[in-house]
Amino acid sequence: MGWLDKEYRWTRIGMVVVGLAFAVLYPRALWGGDEGWMWPTPQRNLPFENMLVAMFFVHGLFLIWGARDPIRYLPLIDFTIVANIVHATVMLNDATRLGLTANLQLSGDVPGTYLGPLLLLLTHPRKFYLDRLFGRVAKT
Question: Torsion over CA of 114, 90, 37 and 121, rounded to 10 degrees?
Fold first, then answer.
């Protein structure tokens, strides 16, 4: 089976796109000082930011690696969807409570963190979440 064979092509592409975003775009945005990607309150915490970059980088590499066989890596896809929706929702709550409006703009980390799971939801190989959302039974 080739990398972009018809079966699971979109899942593979989704995993690679999200993996590259995690491994390349997230560190670039945070370390580059992009508006909305740093939380200045109460003060910046560089060790915490570096730990987040390291975690997202490794997560991104595993998504890219898992794109070779998406069905085998379904738990990673599902974890990425759920964990990042929870992560983004917590950030949304915190940004709203703390008045960090830059993080709520399209160029901020809150909407950015929702994009990865949304893309993986749309390209999920078995459509577990979307089928349940629209009342259809998922095929296994």
Answer: -10
**Taking Cα atoms as reference points, which of 74, 64, 50 lies closest to residue 127?**
74
Closest by alpha carbon to 57, among 83, 20, 86?
A: 20
Q: DSSP code of 137?
A: P
Q: pLDDT, tens digit, for every residue of 12-47? A: 999 999 999 999 998 888 788 777 777 777 777 788
Kindly give the residue spans of alpha helices, DSSP state H, lying in the chain.
9-20, 26-31, 46-66, 74-98, 109-123, 128-133
Residue 57: which residues within 8 A CB-CB, separation 6 or more?
A: 22, 23, 26, 27
> Cα–Cα distance between 39 and 44 in angstroms, integer?
6
Q: What is the pLDDT of residues 82-128, one digit of tens each?
A: 999 999 999 899 888 888 887 788 778 888 899 999 999 999 987 65
